[in-house]
Specification:
The chain has 4 helices and 8 strands. Helix content is about 25%, strand content about 35%. The chain has a 5-stranded antiparallel β-sheet, covered by helices on one side.
Length: about 190
């Protein structure tokens, strides 16, 4: 789910503050930041029609909601971070139901471990493989609390991600308004 310009700016400000610590982190470009519902990996072109149909069904039966940016955290933990994220709070139940519907419609759990339920978040950055541990993340989290910003969750997008030397590029293949029947098709 894409983020509006105000939330992208908030992500950029937070990343700039955290980046002053010179951690070994690949920061997500703020204009590419989003809420991931499920990562599918490589999907054969011949399966895209089925996937579109499955996602349309999940979106049609789901409600829009508005969340709020919350504190900074990390997966798997702040003492062993691999992913640094900006949390989302508020009425997360509609988003959690959408995630469950997408998982049920498409099979699987989105790559999440069975004992780790979905957590609404925006990825800020990923710790580089083999990097030194980030021991001061808990202190930074306390210092750089997030200013609450509204995050509308109104659409489900199917996005193709292509990795390149300068980072990922995204192409929206289809999108659905939550609670709507007809997708908006993209090139």
């Amino acid at each position: 789910m894409p983020l509006d310009a105000e939330v992208q700016q908030a992500v950029a400000r937070l990343q700039r503050g955290l980046a002053t610590r010179a951690w070994p982190v690949r920061w997500v470009q703020p204009e590419l930041a989003h809420i991931t519902v499920k990562f599918f990996g490589d999907v054969p072109v011949g399966q895209l029609g089925v996937l579109r149909s499955q996602l349309a069904s999940a979106a049609e039966r789901s409600m829009a909601t508005t969340l709020s940016t919350a504190g900074v955290g990390a997966f798997p933990s702040v003492t062993r971070p691999r992913v640094i994220w900006l949390g989302l709070s508020g009425n997360v139940k509609p988003l959690e139901r959408l995630v469950a519907r997408v998982d049920a419609a498409t099979g699987g759990d989105g790559g999440r471990p069975a004992d780790k339920p979905f957590r609404a978040h925006i990825t800020l950055g990923r710790v580089r493989d083999g990097a030194r541990p980030i021991s001061d993340l808990p202190a930074a989290i306390a210092e750089y609390g997030a200013i609450p910003h509204a995050v509308p969750v109104e659409r489900l997008l199917l996005i193709r991600s292509t990795l390149g030397s300068s980072g990922p590029t995204y192409q929206t293949l289809a999108e659905w308004a939550l609670g709507a029947v007809e997708p908006q098709e993209h090139g």
